[in-house]
Design goal:
Helix content is 30%, strand content 0%. It is mainly α. This is DUF1289 domain-containing protein.
């Protein structure tokens, strides 16, 4: 079974809740992605699909 690929779309800027505007994963989920099993990755993708972005942070923090 192949590893599930990261849902990153290279829009790496977080909102005021620490959620990426591009993939809607949290900073924790992004940092731990390579450690997750495929089942955990599927769960993260489902959670991310249900998230809405909050306003942009004042600092404009980028993940990359």
């Amino acid at each position: 079974m192949e590893d599930i690929q990261s849902p990153c779309i290279s829009i790496c800027r977080q909102d005021s809740n620490g959620v990426c505007f591009g993939c809607r994963r949290t900073t924790e989920e992004i940092g731990n992605w390579s450690l997750y099993t495929n089942q955990e990755k599927e769960e993260v993708i489902k959670k991310a699909a249900d998230r809405r972005n909050a306003p942009d942070t004042a600092t404009g923090t980028f993940f990359r």
